[in-house]
Structures are given as structure tokens and as C-alpha cells.
Design goal:
Helix content: 40-55%
Number of domains: 3
Number of helices: 14
Number of strands: 11
Radius of gyration: 26 Å
Shape: elongated
Protein name: Transcriptional regulator, LacI family
Distance between the termini: 69 Å
InterPro entries: HTH_LacI, LacI/GalR-like_sensor, Lambda_DNA-bd_dom_sf, Peripla_BP_I
CATH superfamily of the largest domain: Response regulator
Largest sheet: 6 strands, mixed
CATH topology of the largest domain: Rossmann fold
GO molecular function: DNA-binding transcription factor activity; transcription cis-regulatory region binding
CATH class of the largest domain: Alpha Beta
CATH architecture of the largest domain: 3-Layer(aba) Sandwich
Keywords: DNA-binding, Transcription, Transcription regulation
């Protein structure tokens, strides 16, 4: 049974002008100071009941670890740095939350930098994280390696690339964009679609947008299908951008060579596109099919519910965390293989319709 000193003794410790110590926590929890230390730095080594007992004592006493002293003793700061650009309308928060959860389970704190996309390659951002003494670094995509090398090898710390093809880049966790695009194009081909539009991210400086568009074009060509130039738009990822792009495509939907389906680079663009079509009273999927990538939480609640490729967004964060933990501990590293993708068919795609577009009655207010 744990030993519980009198509350007056605890009050004395708090009022004596000194900070609560590891020994105070150990005394209240009825364990040794070494057990408390391991519970705080390597929680997986301690039995759950003992760990809960220790954490209850930590909370009751308001104990805060002396981070500087622990870092000197362990030669580690127990922090992981991450650089993930454009944290707004994207799937990155889900991935980062999974990464942080995995790291926190092993006692690590995540230091996140979320710069504007155009600033994400600035060497100063990575240099700042390294100067703070992070134990490892997580980067988004292989394009960040240009400025990260030679800093990372010089620092001799582990790093991982998230959302990068593991078959082509070392230290990478990701999936096959070609496989994801093949699912989209095969689904549309099976429905009879031959002329496609595409609303995607800017490919000039975004490797993920480049791979997605390249996979799409390769699969379209393989099946003898056509990409309608007037319905091929690059833009920033977001609801507003998807709405504006579809507004532009709508102007040419009366042409005989119009697209019968539009592929959107992610669900945010697709949501905006569906809103523009709804505002224009164009029926989906009867007049135009819409399909996308990501399968964000809101995809099934759109009107109509969105057909989209489910990407392993959360799994990328989890596996990136597992990879870094394994590297930091010198353990066997998880095998790096492309993560699974799968098509989720909902009501935004349907058989091709070659007739003139009939607009549904405008909504009355």
C-alpha cells in the first residue's frame, strides 16, 4: 500500500520556499524516486496501475520536471521538431495530431512550425529547431530535403519525411499517388466517362500536387480517355478556390466536348466545387460527376455525399512517430512500405450523361 504522509507535511514542503521535488512525489506515491523518474521519462516501462498512482501524486503536488537538468543527464531534450507548411484548409492537422499522440505516449513533446508554404523551405526554420536541441525532426514531403541536407547529417539526429513515397526516398512514410489516381480513373471509366476535368493544387512547388496530377494523367492516357483543357485548373487548396474553379468550368458546360466528370485534388476543393454546382442548379451526378482524394470527416456530409479516395492521413502521422521512436532507441525500424489507399463510393459519381445539361429548379427561399 502507498504511504500517504500527513497533509501538513505536504503543506510544509510547499511553504518552505522550495520547489516540489521528485522525492516528494515518490513519498506521496509510495514508490522510489527512480520509479517516478522512469514513469515520467519512459512511461511504457512502468505498470499502468503504478503509473496512474505516480501521475496522481504529480498532479496533487503540482510537480514539474526540471527539464534542463533532465536534458543534461539524458543528453536529450525529449522534444521532436516538425515543419508542416500551410496548416489551414488541409488534412495536415489530422496527421500531426496522430504524430503528436504517438510521440507523447513515449514521453516526447512536439515542437511544430507551420509556416506559409512559400516560407517552408527557409533553412532558418530548421536551423532554429536544431538550435533548440530537438532529438529528431519530422518534415513534410521530399522537397524539404533540398535545404535540410546538409544540416540534418551534420546534426546527426534522426529524421522522417511524411507524405513522401517510401519506395523512392529514404526515411519516408507515405503512399502511392499513382495507385490513388488509378482508383479514381478506373471508377470513372467503369461508369462510362471519357472526358474529364481536373481541379488540383499548384504543381510548381508542391511535390504532392505534382505526383497526384502526374498519376492522374498517366492513368487517363493508359485508358485512352481525354482531359478537357478548358476544365483543367491549378489553384490553391481550399473551399473558396474550389468554388471559383468550378464557376469557371460551368461557363463551358454547354459545349459538346464538355467534361462529364471532374476530379478534384482534395476534398476541400471538391466541397467548393459542389457548392458552385448547387448554386448554378446543376445536378450532381446526373449532369456532372465529382470525385476527389482524402476522405476527410466532412466528405460523407456534403450534398451529395462525396466519392473520394481514402488516404492514410492519420496512419502517416502514427508511423512517422513510430519510426522516430525506433531510431531514437536504436530499435528495429518499422518496414517502410506504401500505406493502403481505398476508394469510398458515395453519391457524387454516376453513369455518364451525354445529353444537354438540364438545370434543376432553383431553390426558393
Amino acid at each position: 500500500m502507498p504511504r500517504h504522509p500527513a497533509s501538513s507535511s505536504l503543506a510544509l514542503a510547499g511553504n518552505a520556499g522550495r520547489a516540489v521535488s521528485l522525492a516528494d512525489v515518490a513519498m506521496l506515491a509510495g514508490v522510489s524516486p527512480g520509479t517516478v523518474s522512469r514513469a515520467l521519462s519512459r512511461p511504457e516501462m512502468i505498470r499502468p496501475t503504478t503509473r496512474m498512482q505516480i501521475m496522481a501524486a504529480v498532479e496533487r503536488l503540482g510537480y514539474v520536471t526540471n527539464g534542463a537538468a533532465r536534458s543534461l543527464a539524458m543528453r536529450r531534450t525529449m522534444t521532436i521538431g516538425a515543419i508542416v507548411p500551410r496548416f489551414g484548409s488541409s488534412s495536415f492537422p489530422t496527421m500531426i495530431q496522430a504524430l503528436e499522440t504517438r510521440l507523447a505516449a513515449h514521453g516526447y513533446t512536439l515542437l511544430l512550425s507551420a509556416p506559409e508554404h512559400k516560407l517552408s523551405k527557409e533553412p532558418a526554420i530548421l536551423r532554429t529547431l536544431l538550435e533548440r536541441g530537438v532529438d529528431a525532426v519530422a518534415l513534410l514531403g521530399e522537397e524539404q530535403l533540398t535545404h535540410a541536407l546538409p544540416m540534418l547529417p551534420a546534426s546527426r539526429i534522426p529524421f522522417v519525411l511524411m507524405w513522401a513515397p517510401p519506395e523512392s526516398v529514404n526515411h519516408a512514410v507515405g503512399f502511392s499517388e499513382r495507385e490513388a489516381a488509378a482508383l479514381v480513373v478506373a471508377h470513372l471509366a467503369a461508369l462510362g466517362h471519357q472526358r474529364l476535368g481536373f481541379i488540383g493544387g499548384r504543381t510548381g512547388d508542391n511535390a504532392r500536387a505534382q505526383r497526384r496530377f502526374h498519376g492522374f494523367t498517366v492513368e487517363v492516357a493508359k485508358r485512352g480517355m481525354t482531359i478537357c483543357e478548358a476544365a483543367m485548373i491549378e489553384t490553391d487548396y481550399g473551399f473558396e478556390q474550389g468554388y471559383a474553379a468550378m464557376d469557371q468550368i460551368i461557363e463551358d458546360l454547354d459545349r459538346a466536348d464538355r467534361p462529364t466528370a471532374v476530379v478534384c485534388g482534395n476534398d476541400y476543393l471538391a466541397a467548393g466545387a459542389l457548392s458552385a454546382l448547387d448554386r448554378a442548379a446543376i445536378e450532381v451526378p446526373r449532369a456532372l460527376s465529382i470525385i476527389s482524394f482524402n476522405d476527410n470527416d466532412f466528405a460523407s456530409y456534403l450534398h451529395p455525399p462525396l466519392t473520394t479516395v481514402r488516404l492514410p492521413i492519420r496512419e502517416m502521422g502514427e508511423q512517422a512517430g513510430a519510426y522516430l521512436i525506433a531510431r531514437l532507441r536504436g530499435a528495429a525500424q518499422p518496414e517502410r512500405v506504401p500505406l493502403h489507399v481505398g476508394l469510398v463510393v458515395r453519391q457524387s459519381t454516376g453513369p455518364v450523361f451525354e445529353g444537354a445539361i438540364r438545370r434543376k429548379p432553383a431553390k426558393t427561399r
